[in-house]
Design brief:
Organism: Pyrus ussuriensis x Pyrus communis
Keywords: NAD, NADP
CATH class of the largest domain: Alpha Beta
Protein name: tRNA-dihydrouridine(16/17) synthase [NAD(P)(+)]-like
Largest sheet: 8 strands, mixed, barrel
GO molecular function: tRNA dihydrouridine synthase activity
Radius of gyration: 20 Å
CATH architecture of the largest domain: Alpha-Beta Barrel
Oligomer: single chain
Pfam family, one: Dus
CATH superfamily of the largest domain: Aldolase class I
Shape: globular
Length: 331
């Protein structure tokens, strides 16, 4: 049985000197977690690509808690919030490599970052190695890893049927046999979802941690485990069960945070960092959606605005607070 195709990572061509913000492990974590891990000795003594990968990981502070990419949610604002509340690293949303190199407008809207936004994974979908290389060149000085998303049409999990193409993608920048091929091609880090591709859209299907462990045991490079992470305790359980080097998760961990307070915090970050208004609006609806369903007139007022301002959004929060908004209703 084939497991769901992993995400593929390569180090950008240039040597980077990232700035690492202080990790807060703050109020959404019930207890502070500490992790320690020493890379294999064979990976600390030379100049092979695998050795450089381990050296990069050590330089970045041995990140363990990594926020997976989510459509329309993983932009700069979201990543900065995640860093503040305990994430060691985060992904950008998936970027289309061809559109990224062809459209300056697309690049400006979809890829924003700052010096505090580290460590950072930039994710591309690609099926042309030359196009991917050009896209990577445009982000190499702004990130720590580039991720190739290997399952839509000729992308992601469905690329497993075209192994020569995947190998060419990795070499141009680069089940266990498949993982070893990726490692041999130059892959620096492998994120494994632990699901078969026919099950990937079924939310109640648990990831197979034994499969992830088998992949980890077969490789020298970093392996990220993705799946079954609902609470912080699951992080420790997953690391123990899989022997993975890091954990990747996109499930929300902020249910106990006051959503009105969190939105105010997000809006303040929006004023500080460049974020497109459509993304700000998406976060407003997702954070306050439960309250909008109870108070639809406030949502209607929001949707009726032709031009949004931060003052108007702060006023929305104040109005909801007066109506008793706070923690999510589903708790």
């Amino acid at each position: 049985m084939r497991f769901k195709i992993p995400n593929l990572h390569i180090l950008p061509p240039k040597t980077l000197k990232p700035l690492i913000p202080t990790s807060h492990m703050a109020s959404l974590l019930a207890t502070q977690q500490t992790f320690s891990y020493t890379p294999p000795l064979c990976c600390l003594t030379g100049e092979s690509s695998i050795e450089r990968t381990w050296a990069q990981w050590l330089k970045l502070g041995r990140p363990k808690l990594i926020v997976a990419p989510m459509v329309d949610n993983s932009e700069l604002l979201f990543r900065m919030i995640c860093h503040k509340y305990g994430a060691d690293s985060a992904y950008t949303p998936m970027l289309h490599s061809r559109i990224f190199i062809e459209s300056e407008k697309y690049r400006e809207q979809e890829f924003t970052t700052c010096k505090e936004d580290r460590s950072l994974f930039v994710q591309f979908c690609a099926n042309d190695p030359e196009v991917l290389l050009e896209a990577v060149k445009k982000v190499e000085t702004h990130c720590d890893y580039v991720n190739i998303n290997l399952g839509r049409g000729n992308y992601e999990a469905f690329l497993m049927d075209n192994l020569p193409l995947i190998k060419s993608l990795v070499e141009n920048l680069d089940t266990i046999k498949y993982a070893r091929m990726l490692e041999d091609a130059g892959c620096s880090l492998l994120a494994v979802h632990g699901q078969t591709r026919d099950k990937k859209d079924q939310k109640k299907v648990w990831a197979n941690l034994d499969t992830i462990r088998a992949v980890k045991n077969a490789l020298i490079i970093h392996v990220l485990a993705n799946g079954n992470i609902k609470h912080m305790d699951d992080v420790c359980d997953c690391l123990e069960a899989t022997s993975a080097d890091e954990v990747l998760s996109a499930d929300r961990k902020d249910e106990k945070l006051d959503q009105a307070d969190l939105l105010v915090e997000c809006l303040k970050l929006c004023e500080q960092y460049p974020v497109p208004w459509q993304m700000i609006l998406a976060h407003v609806h997702k954070m306050l959606g439960e309250w909008f369903r109870i108070h639809p007139h406030i949502r209607e007022d929001l949707n009726a605005q032709n031009i949004l301002t931060f003052g108007f959004l702060y006023d929305i929060v104040d109005r909801l607070r007066e109506l008793g908004a706070g923690v999510p209703l589903y708790l």
